[in-house]
Amino acid sequence: MKVLVTGGAGYIGSVVTRALLAEGYQIVVLDDLSTGFADTIPRGVEFHKLPVHDVARVLAPGAGFEAVLHFAGKIEVAESVARPDLYWHVNVAGSMAVLDAVRAARTPRLIFSSTGSLYTGEAAGKLTEDSPVLPRNPYAATKLAVDMMLAGECPAFGLAAASLRYFNAAGAVDGLGERHNPESHLIPVVLQVAGGQRDELLLYGDDYPTPDGTCIRDYIHVGDLAAAHLLALRAIEPGRHDVYNLGNGDGYSNRQVIDAVREVTGRPVPVRLAPRRAGDAAVTVADSQRARRELGWRPAKPGLREIIADAWAFYRATWPIR
Prior knowledge:
alpha/beta; 9 helices
């Protein structure tokens, strides 16, 4: 099967690209390298350095693509608040360009990189695909907009599609890890403190209604996310848009993450308390039973320390540890 991976030089996109290659798929990567890295693209893979808006130059009628995995997009919450125009332009208009090209080329399948952050986080218990949705920032709003586009596109044009709503992707696979600049995700930030790249960790709030007062999140290994993409690609059906939450179903507080990093690295992590950040939910933990039931998906590395250990091994090979 010939597959186009948009954003295939980014963190999750590059891991999925490697997984697809290992399964024998023919891969073409499109990425503008604004946040991705050319060195993540495997040797011999056809690569187009283009903005996602120009996807029709690659995904053209007669090109023979049977599927698109769409990762290309902006992901930083704070940046989306400061530059909502950029996020609508890249995430929404860019995704519209992908759908236009898919339709023109009669490409039958699409997997979309969505997010668990679009839920309100106010429902009791774990979040299902039917939990209330209310994006707290432009980033999450753009992801929901694309989910809604797909919900209309599939029955209208016979597209087979799935939106995979990740919770907190972390870890590393075969030398592929998080390299965001600036970095805002908790596990790599705490590891940067442990590795001497930062002097201290700012802990945003310790008065949440949780056992230790800090926010609780569901962390999922990036390798397990990649496995879910391959399963979804095989399972989606024409005319249907399916939504799947991808998380471990276990929540860990910010303090538990900090303690786990100290244990895994054997290094100190100085912490300074800071005020809450606006919009942070107290608890977001996924119910991923639909993915388990319908896709046969089972996380292979659900443990927090295993996820952190893989990320730490990547950073030790990447950074000058002080």
